[in-house]
Amino acid sequence: MSKKKPFNELDRKTKLIVIVILSFLVLLGLFIILGIFFLGMVGLFQLLGVTYESNRSLVFFGLLVLTLGFLFEVLAKLVKAQIINVKKAHLHVRVGIDILFTWFTVYIVDELIVSVAMHMWSQWIFALLLVAIDYAFDDRKIRNEKLA
């Protein structure tokens, strides 16, 4: 017979242990995801010939791309909504808008961070890769645009 208690009936010490362990697991998962993103970016930048002064500037570049990417993604959704209201936009128009706004994000971040130097073609390849990853991991985009 098990003696399972609800969380609110546990004593303070047990609650603290549970909260600390869960927080640790969440942080560990977050660090693993960010580490994979960072190492992937380092490898891709090596292949594309992107130069950077330090790992700190590369981490800052990645965080700024993610932050500005959220802002520009909202703008891209607004533009796509206006196009869809005017006429039924084709799949390539929607993907083109996503690529354009993603490239604009990468371009702005590249201009803001002087310690990272990207060629124009490497900016486009990086933007294409980010959009491809975005479509690969977003089930709603696949369902809505009938890619699957």
From TrEMBL:
The keyword DNA-binding does not apply. The chain crosses the membrane at residues 16-45, 57-79, 91-109, 121-137. Keywords: Membrane, Transmembrane, Transmembrane helix. It comes from the Bacteria. This is Regulatory protein YrvL. It comes from Halobacillus andaensis.
